[in-house]
Design goal:
Helices cover 37% and strands 18% of the residues. It has 203 residues and is α+β, with helices and mostly antiparallel strands. It folds into 2 domains: 145 residues, 2-Layer Sandwich (60s Ribosomal Protein L30, Chain: A); 31 residues, Wheat Germ Agglutinin (Isolectin 2), domain 1. It binds zinc ion (2 copies).
Length: 203
């Protein structure tokens, strides 16, 4: 019996929004979705402004759910990528200073037969039979991730780091080689001339 109100199905409207943005359904997106739903609830996300800052520790499919649902995007500067290769998402509210670290961990008890299918797929087997089984396994995994009890899939704790500094705006200067504008802290100086990084590397 499932009495868990914080579990979701494939027809959840927020899930569908994330899938539409991301372009396909996948287990990775489902991880990000679970973290995003906690952030939406805890920070009462309504408007997609710069109020919430997300620090993401991977650049996988999962991050697209964070961008769609929590409104943290690279463009707005409230999505900070720290390349740790972990399914960890830390959210901060600039307004209240509140922070939340969410680690996602899904333990799937695969049968030996299921592990065998994945292994054949990884080794390059693209037969119709294997592809069909992989698709079924993938969908079942997504359902399990969406439907898991929150305590079973998420570890929520206080942040381990502080709120990242607000996105800064720098002046642009012109590269002396290509003539294109480049943000000042990204310029390289050589013999008194200013270069953009690609031009500096080509020198
Ligand atoms: Zn994906
Ligand atoms: Zn240049």
């Amino acid at each position: 019996m499932n009495t868990n109100e914080n579990a979701y199905t494939l027809s959840d409207p927020d899930w569908l929004r994330a899938v539409e943005f991301h372009g396909h359904m996948c287990p990775g997106l489902a991880y990000g979705f679970r973290a995003a739903k906690v952030a939406m609830r805890e920070f009462q996300v309504r408007s997609l402004d710069e109020e919430i800052v997300a620090v993401v520790e991977n650049d996988s499919c999962a991050v697209d759910a964070i961008q769609t649902l929590v409104g943290c995007t690279f463009g707005k500067g409230n999505l900070v990528f720290r390349d740790m290769g972990k399914q960890v998402y830390t959210f901060f509210s600039r307004g209240t200073g509140k922070g939340l670290r969410i680690a996602v961990e899904f333990r799937d008890d695969e049968t030996p037969e299921e592990s065998g299918v994945w292994q054949r797929f990884r080794e390059g087997d693209r037969s119709a039979d294997t592809l069909e089984r992989v698709n079924r396994l993938r969908e079942s995994k997504i359902r399990k991730i969406l439907g898991a009890r929150e305590e079973a899939i998420l570890k929520v704790s206080a942040p381990e780091t502080g709120l990242p500094a607000k996105a800064r705006i720098y002046p642009s200067v012109r590269c002396s080689r290509c003539g294109e504008k480049v943000m000042e802290p990204r310029t390289r100086l050589h013999d008194g001339a200013v270069f953009c990084i690609p031009c500096h590397e080509k020198r």
